[in-house]
Amino acid sequence: MNIDWSALLLVSVVTVGVATVVVTIFAYGAAKLAAAHQAQTEGRPAGWNAVLAKIMFGTVGAIGLFGLYLVIPYFH
Predict the structure, then answer these.
(1) What is the per-residue pLDDT for 75?
(2) DSSP label at residue 34
(3) Confidence at residue 1, expressed as pLDDT on a 0 to 100 scale
(4) Positive or negative, the Cα torsion across 61, 62, 68, 71?
C-alpha cells in the first residue's frame, strides 16, 4: 500500500484553509451582529451591520450545506 503524500498534503492544506475562512466569516458576522445590537441599544438604527451579519451567517450556512452535499453520496 502506497500513500500519495502530495494528495494528503493538498487535502490537509485545503481543509485548514476552508476551516479558517469559515471561522473568520462567522466571527465577522458575530461582530457585526454585536455592533447592530449595540447600535439599537443606543437608540440608533442597526443599519448595514444587521444586513452584513445575516449575509455572513447565510454564507457560513451555504458553505456547510455544500460540504454536506460533497460528503453524502446520495445527493450526487
Answers:
(1) 82
(2) H
(3) 84
(4) negative
Task: Report how far residue 67's alpha carbon sits from residue 75's, in angstroms, rounded to the nearest whole number.
Answer: 11
Q: What angle do CA 21, 22, 27 make, to 5 degrees?
A: 100
Q: Residue 53: which residues within 8 A CB-CB, separation 6 or more? A: 29, 30, 32, 33, 36
Cβ contact 26:52 at 8 Å:
no
Tens of pLDDT, residue by residue over 27-67, are 999 999 999 999 999 999 989 999 999 999 999 999 999 99
Domain ranges of the chain: 18-75
What's the CA gap between 50 and 2, in Å, rounded? 51
